[in-house]
Amino acid sequence: MRITGILLVKDEDLYVERAVRNVLEFCDEFIAVDNGSQDGTPEILRRMAVGSGCKFAYHRAEHPGLSHELIAPLAGTDTWIFAVDGDEIYDPSGLRRFRRRLESSEFDRDWVVFGNVLNVRQLDPGAGFAAGHLAPACRSMTKLYNFKAIDAWEGPCQERLHGGKPRFRAGFHEGMRRNLHETVSWEEADFRCLHLCFLRRSSLERENSPPRGNIMDRHARSWKQRADDFWRRLRGLGPVDWKEQRYGRGPLVSKPVSAFFPEWTA
């Protein structure tokens, strides 16, 4: 059993190093794809690739679809694909425990596993707390896929794990999903993430700038979403805030987060 991490980013230099460092031990190999960043993201990832040896591969891509092309050949192998974004900070000690559970075959009959998430509106790493919205009531955006369950992932994909269609092996199907965020509390979770979706993530962004859309939203919006945006513009309305709809649900809660910000060692 192997775990392959796949990162797709654009202009994420404020948190991308933390996002990657927190998951490197969890992964057997890590692939970073930069989709044309103009801030310090490429420099950070190149430096990390050199410092991490053969475990870390860095790619500069003009289109985010490369991130899927790099992992598609792993279909049918005993590999878990772990997709990470530059605004996702995982609990590294929890991932160590979770890796042992994966190795024990606890999730072998699952196609995809979703973990616990705090969608962060306020973050103070020094004080060790964050405030935001938990999943549930929000959706979980964590992405851990069992590629042993499929023979291939066919068709065009706008980015890793989005678009196209998996061709499942006998005994597996799309509905085999493990929703850990619905059965395990935030405090008890091993597979948990701070999703910094409401925070400034690049040195190019102004303070208090509105949250931006992600790469998938820019490249894979459905025809209905595009039509809705067009009619809203004709009526003088702003675009629908998809981020609020997905990640701003439920009460605002504060949680201790020191476990997500351990000291780095050389």
Quick structural gist:
By secondary structure, the chain is α/β, with parallel strands linked by helices. The chain is 23% helix and 30% strand.
Describe the structure using short key phrases.
266 residues, alpha/beta, 30% strand, Spore Coat Polysaccharide Biosynthesis Protein SpsA, Chain A, seven-stranded mixed β-sheet, five-stranded mixed β-sheet
Describe it.
With 266 residues, the chain is an alpha/beta fold. Helices cover 23% and strands 30% of the residues. The chain is built from 7 helices and 14 strands. It is globular.
- How far apart lie the N and C ends? 27 Å
Low-confidence stretches at least 5 residues in length (pLDDT < 50)? none
Percentage of residues assigned to helices = 10-25%
Secondary-structure arrangement, i.e. CATH architecture: Alpha-Beta Complex
Describe the global form. Answer: globular
Biggest sheet, spatial arrangement of strands: 3-2-1-4-9-6-12
Q: How many domains is the backbone divided into?
A: 1
Number of DSSP helical runs: 7
N-to-C SSE series? Answer: EHEHEHEEHEEEEEEEEHHHE
Show the helix and strand layout.
Elements: E1 2-9, H1 16-24, E2 29-34, H2 41-52, E3 56-60, H3 66-69, E4 79-84, E5 88-90, H4 92-103, E6 112-114, E7 116-124, E8 129-135, E9 143-146, E10 150-159, E11 162-168, E12 177-179, E13 192-195, H5 215-219, H6 223-234, H7 242-247, E14 253-256
Parallel strand pairs: 1-2, 1-4, 2-3, 6-12, 7-13
Antiparallel strand pairs: 4-9, 5-13, 6-9, 7-8, 8-14, 10-11
